[in-house]
Amino acid sequence: EYQELQFHTSHGHYWASYSVENRRPDLAGFAVSSTSVYVCLLEGSTGATPSEEMNGTGNLMDFLDEPFPDVGTYEDFHTIDWLREKSRDTDRHRKITTKSKESYWELIKSLLDAWSGWVVMLLIGMLTGTLAGVIDLAVDWMTDLKEGVCLSALYYSREQCCWTSNETTFDDRDKCPQWQKWAELMTGHSEGAGAYVLNYFLYVLWALLFSFLAVSLVRVFAPYACGSGIPEIKTILSGFIIRGYLGKWTLLIKTVTLVLAVSSGLSLGKEGPLVHVACCCGNLFCSLFSKYSKNEGKRREVLSAAAAAGVSVAFGAPIGGVLFSLEEVSYYFPLKTLWRSFFAALVAAFTLRAINPFGNSRLVLFYVEYHTPWYMAELVPFILLGVFGGLWGALFIRGNIAWCRRRKTTLLGKYPVLEVIVITGITAVLAFPNPYTRRSTSELISELFNDCGALESSQLCDYVNNPNMSRPVDDIPDRPAGPGVYSALWQLALALIFKIVITIFTFGMKIPSGLFIPSMMAYHHHDWIIFKNWCRPGADCVTPGLYAMVGAAACLGGVTRMTVSLVVIMFELTGGLEYIVPLMAAAVTSKWVADAFGKEGIYESHIQLNGYPYLDVRDEFTHRTLATDVMRPRRSEPPLAVLTQDSTTVEDVETLIKDTDYNGFPVVVSRESERLIGFVQRRELTVAIKTARQKQDGVVSSSVVYFTEDNPQVAEACDPQPLKLRRILNLSPFTVTDHTPMETVVDIFRKLGLRQCLVTRSGRLLGIITKKDVLRHMAQMMNQDPESIMFN
């Protein structure tokens, strides 16, 4: 229990014994005589115990017992260690639970820690819902600003302006005196070629101005604010670090430029970027709680819930948002995250409903209610719509990826502002003549989804009125189509072709651009004559809006390969609960057809294009290779860089860190035996040595670094002070044998979220397999370029 040691002080020569079990850092030792014990307080004492004074490791040992600053954090473009983050959170929770039994204050702190997750969800939902409402109102106003202005209030959109007008009549319900187009306001003439040309010119000018502002703000202030953000969100949720992608500047610029981009009339939507905005909100509130800011694994649980809140406000579909996060974007989704995602989506939807941006007491602009049942024979056209959606999805993905790859490899990528201006100009010039492409895409979908009624003024509802008919005026199926219907049909056909082509070139530009809405409006079905044999005379036979809805789901499913979440989003979006079977049939068919041309959806394709280290859990690995075929080093490569447990100097470690870019180093007993001891992370090693040099004078380049459990002994007084770094050593790194099948290794990396895996044989270290090595090998097995995985 006690050791008898000899030590020297400025006051003389003493014998001392001290307890190894209960060291007092403020006592230099216990002076012992035959009759009494004298406590000697040494002048200028460093607070070290006698043995440590002799060994030269004094307060460095005590210092290293405390947590290092920045230890456990990760470098940019690196992958987190899920197992380590989980272990750290378990240790943190255990300490809090233990302390909560000591006092009431610690108990209150433990309760606050337990409730912090729900508080974060509440804040995320409220901010996401508020931002979504502001974006909806701003987009509505700025979209109408391209065509005209409200005289009664400049900040009113056309619909809001006409709501407040008392001069609107039923016959002229599309017009109100308070709303004037630019030509009428400037020249006093609303009709004629001159007025048309002036309106045309100002429409294009406003569109160019909005898009130029959007791309300029993105390029100057927040380059990460471009695109939809969902491919990057998926990669981040899988454990990848992209610093600044979810930062405050990105949140601000993405919100502002999203309004500008959608208002410019480009063929894009705001739904995908809203997921990015919601995740930025989640990251912002994570920084307020150390529970999430210091643990990357816990942070990703919050981001998964934030993604659900983003889809909730984008489509007014809280349940669909939760399923979207589970099915499409999340990598690790425990049951606790499911509950919190539901709560965040609920709060976000409630906040948006309170703002009521569309003035219809709904969460979305195109909420519809169908009262006509569907017939079994209609499953055939529903499946055909699924086939069309799958073909459209495959065509879009191949065309868009080919264009984006060309953008990356040609001079076009060096001029993003010019590209946005050119695409916007082409879109505006071609869109203005067609009323179905001139208006915002959300308004177009709303018109296509809705049934015709007595109050509808759309050309699609231009049926012939016979004054001698005894049937009600809104009983449309028995009335013949008027010229407006035929005119609308060819205009919709042109709009379909235009949207298919222009969306391929628009998605992926350096502005916020979503894909949901352009995909949804890719097909509109009208009344076919063959349907007349399926229903009773005089009854509603076919609901055109239903076919538009099913076609929208089919196209969106073909592009994104979503199934369950897509069906739920669509029936929440439209309120068409009884049409789940048609939606399911179309979604499954579109996925099957699109998968025949390629397994990757648009987001996975962009992940591959950008070279993100994303290991998709849905991919199958069927090749018969072993861990020894993939591990590094190969036979032609230099030996593995390792550290020994008690013979490596600080200078050796610093040289190794300087000459290599590895994320970590295995620690072995000796270079001869190569028996594995553990694994140490590069960043933690760098921080530990840097901190020790600053806080402890005795550490020099020739100091020996120890990873052993026992305290290092100094042979001579002139030897430099040793450095013990046992604390940062991972004693249980994940290992496999060299004959482990790669199918098993890939499954381990997917399900455990490993960063690296060591390869051994009978305890002897042979090599290492990193996540990047796994991705390279999988790409090589699929005859792809293994060097396309750019990041660590």
Automatic annotation (TrEMBL):
Q: Name one GO cellular component term.
A: Golgi apparatus
Q: Which GO terms describe its molecular function?
A: antiporter activity; ATP binding; voltage-gated chloride channel activity
Annotated membrane-spanning segments are: 115-135, 200-225, 246-266, 302-326, 338-355, 375-397, 417-436, 488-511
Q: How does it sit in the membrane?
A: Multi-pass membrane protein
Keyword flag Transport:
yes
Q: Which domain of life does this protein belong to?
A: Eukaryota
Arranged from A to Z, the UniProt key words for this protein are: Antiport, ATP-binding, CBS domain, Chloride, Endosome, Ion transport, Membrane, Nucleotide-binding, Repeat, Transmembrane, Transmembrane helix, Transport
From the Swiss-Prot or TrEMBL record, state where the protein is found: Endosome membrane; Membrane
Cite the CBS domain residue spans from the record: 631-695, 729-787
Keyword Ligase in the entry? The reply is: no
Q: Sorted alphabetically, which Pfam families does this protein's record hold?
A: CBS, Voltage_CLC
Taking the record's annotation, the residue ranges forming a coiled coil are none
Query: According to its UniProt record, which protein family does this protein belong to?
Result: Belongs to the chloride channel (TC 2.A.49) family.
Name of the protein: Chloride channel protein
The organism is Oncorhynchus tshawytscha (Chinook salmon)
Give the organism's phylogenetic lineage: Eukaryota, Metazoa, Chordata, Craniata, Vertebrata
Q: Which gene encodes it?
A: CLCN4
